[in-house]
Amino acid sequence: MTESDVADFRDRLCGVAERLFAERGPDAVTMRQLASELGVSPMTPYRYFQDKDDILAAVRTNAFNRFAEALETARDGAKGARAKGAAVGEAYVNFAFANPHTYKLMFDLNQPLEGDYPELVEAGRRAHANMTAWVEDLIAAGEMAGDAEEIGAMFWAATHGVIVLEMAGKLPAGASRRLHDRLGATLARGLRAGG
Asked: CB neighbours of 98 closer than 8 A, spacing ≥ 6?
């Protein structure tokens, strides 16, 4: 079996796992079910992953990397600091609602310890860096003042909060976009240099 074959099987297994984890919850999915979905013996997944937590960590790593890539593409495609911030915010909301089950898996509180999975930690750092980079753009342009890490964390927490509330049916459909836009404008006004 070539490295490419191994990577292909791991990708297929992660795809099936992501779907089943989203449909049933990670605790309700067994390694046997994953193998059955792929049409392989029950022991085959163990050749590629240590256990179900290892698979969940790989699924989450892939999700965080796709998320970070969406944010990077949005930021890179925009001109000007404000446009970059707006593009990242829009890409964030778009990713969450285009991939609601994946988004929930990324942030589910019932997760294996991330420290045991360096690739997951790195993917999480990459996502975090994207929540700070556009703030650094605004600070460099004189549009905002303050600590980029702290401001990025505030935007991330607020955006995540409205998305989860909308997904849970506690806010009407489309509220995340409206509230995110208003939040961005309100925080930017309050954090402008000299403001």
From this structure: none
155, 135 Cβ separation under 8 angstroms: yes
| pLDDT beyond 90 at 116 | no
For 76-85, which contacts have Cβ atoms below 8 Å and span 24 or more sequence positions? 80/141, 81/134, 81/137, 81/138, 81/140, 81/141, 81/143, 82/138, 82/141, 82/143, 82/188, 84/134, 84/137, 84/138, 85/134, 85/135, 85/137, 85/138, 85/184, 85/188
Is pLDDT at 111 greater than 90 in this prediction?
no
- pTM higher than 0.90, yes or no? no
Specify the length of the chain in residues. 195
pLDDT tens digit sequence for 6-54: 889 999 999 999 989 888 888 889 999 999 999 999 899 999 999 988 9
3-state DSSP percent of the chain in helix, strand and coil, to 5: 80, 0, 20
With the C-alpha atoms ordered 42, 47, 52, 57, is the resulting torsion angle positive or negative? Answer: negative
